[in-house]
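Entry type: protein chain
Record version: 2
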Amino acid sequence: MGRRLKVAAQGLALLLVAGLFALLGWKVTHQSGGGKLVSEAEKGAKPVAPSFRLQRLNGSGNLELASLRHKVVLVNFWATWCDPCKREIPRLQKAWKRYQGKDVVFVGVDAQDFDSSARRAIEKFGITYPVVYDGTGKALGRYGGLPLPRTFVIDRRGKIVSYQLGELDGADITRMVNTALRPA
């Protein structure tokens, strides 16, 4: 009798773990409607970028996305635990320097991370573009959730004109930003 009870408990534990993984998968793909946003952006539609107001990590106060209307905005979601994110930071920094003064703003959104780790990364990589903190991932969820990195370019009217999931190279950044800079 003890052996059957043990086997039944193990089977129940496996079912519970499988159920938790299924729930996690559903949560990642259905966070706050972000999946629909990504789907629309991938099809070439130009959905309105979800707003956010987040604490600055390399400056004081908060940054509100709506305050950047009438500028082209590159929003890059990243975290210090994400190796591809760390590899693309120098490329983003280099491109940021190139586009400064051209009505283009880069915003790094450190998501689902510790702010102290992000502050160290900002210093280590010499990031000078604005970086904000989305510790809970609420803003990230509105933009499709994990995995990271993911980058959106928003035009002057506040619409997403370009999106990429995964690590950016220099050509990707140039292509995405230049697409938004072209006259409508």
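Comment: Helices lie at 2-29, 34-42, 83-99, 115-125, 138-142, 170-181.
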